[in-house]
Amino acid sequence: MKNILGIIGYPIGHTLSPLIHNTAIKHIGLDYIYLPFEVKKENIALAIGGLKGLGIKGINVTIPHKESVIPYLETLDDNAKFIGAVNTIKLEDDKIKGYNTDGLGFLKSLKIDAKEDVKGKNIIILGAGGSARAIAIQMALEKANSVIIANRTVERGKKLAEYIKLKVHDPSTGWVPRKLKVKAIALNDSLLVEYFREADIIINATSIGMKDNNNPLFPYNYISNKHLVCDIVYRPIETNLLKEALLRGARILNGLGMLIYQGSLSFKIWTGHEMPVEIVRKTLMKELKS
Ligand SMILES: NC(=O)c1ccc[n+]([C@@H]2O[C@H](COP(=O)([O-])OP(=O)(O)OC[C@H]3O[C@@H](n4cnc5c(N)ncnc54)[C@H](OP(=O)(O)O)[C@@H]3O)[C@@H](O)[C@H]2O)c1
């Protein structure tokens, strides 16, 4: 019998994760299969409880369950603890362990695809949702100089900024106390243009940029050729934001790398194998272009 991996979320119809993992499984020749499972909010406890019973080896967790699964897990890795959300679960020695590879996946893409280092950099993150949270915390852990969170709902951004400040200065969490400027502002705050002047890296972690949701988040003339502009939206691969950034001479990074590397980190956790990322990237490009 094959070893079963999968993903839980709701809705789950458009997930690319089965394509990513089954491409890697086939290429390496592993005895695994990766399946999507549509799980409603009210069934999350039953779904997690069922993993052991069914002998499932591991799963990814996506919207809306990344936080609500935590009470049903037996241990968490450090990243999942810091972020307060789980995107990967592994059944290890009969224990259900939660991991978070979202922030690390983005970081790998930044390092490998954009050849960018985070240490000492000034970073603007647009958004304060689940992905923005994972990325902002990862950027803080990587010793960014400043993290500015610009969100439509400023209160949500402020909560995230407060959380990061608290954790950075809490020795019990293992974070080394150090100087880090973290601030939350509204997307339409007039100060945003000032932060753009100081910024090295701009990251769109909102859902703006997807096909039917394309209004500019800020005036594009804030972008200059000293910026690296990243968009974690990957449908389309090149969003309007990235097109506008290119026009202004900025370097760009699309969301495909984050998608692949967060998957490759989960894949390694479950199978112990490196994902053939370039094979997976080619397959995904073909799928997203069609
Ligand atoms: N590349 C990857 O691997 C990867 C991984 C995960 C997610 N993503 C993409 O990242 C995006 C965000 O995902 P998520 O899980 O973080 O979603 P989420 O938790 O629902 O957060 C959505 C964010 O978008 C903002 N937003 C939504 N509509 C907006 C609008 N009309 N104007 C301004 N801001 C708006 C929200 O602001 P408010 O707080 O004001 O509502 C919030 O900050 C999605 O498009 C997803 O496809 C990519």
Topology overview:
Elements: E1 3-9, H1 17-28, E2 32-38, H2 44-54, E3 58-61, E4 75-76, H3 78-83, E5 88-92, E6 95-99, H4 102-112, E7 122-126, H5 130-141, E8 146-151, H6 154-168, E9 181-186, H7 192-198, E10 201-204, E11 228-231, H8 240-247, E12 251-253, H9 256-271, H10 277-289
Parallel strand pairs: 1-2, 1-3, 4-6, 7-8, 7-10, 8-9, 10-11, 11-12
Antiparallel strand pairs: 3-5, 5-6
Helix pairs in contact: 1-10, 4-5, 4-9, 9-10
NADP nicotinamide-adenine-dinucleotide phosphate is lined by residues 63, 127-132, 151-153, 156, 205-208, 210, 217, 232-234, 255, 258-259, 262.
What can you see in these coordinates?
By secondary structure, this protein is α/β, with parallel strands linked by helices. It folds into 2 domains: 3-100 and 257-289, Rossmann fold; 104-254, Rossmann fold (3-Layer(aba) Sandwich), CATH 3.40.50. It contains 10 helices and 12 strands. The strands form 2 sheets. Strands 2-1-3-5-6-4 form a 6-stranded mixed beta sheet, sandwiched between helices. It has a 6-stranded parallel beta sheet with strand order 9-8-7-10-11-12, with helices on both faces. Helix 6 links the parallel strand 8 and strand 9 (181-186). Helix 1 (17-28) crosses helix 10 (277-289). The radius of gyration is 19 Å and the shape is globular. The mean pLDDT is 94. The structure holds NADP nicotinamide-adenine-dinucleotide phosphate. NADP nicotinamide-adenine-dinucleotide phosphate binds at residues 63, 127-132, 151-153, 156, 205-208, 210, 217, 232-234, 255, 258-259, 262.
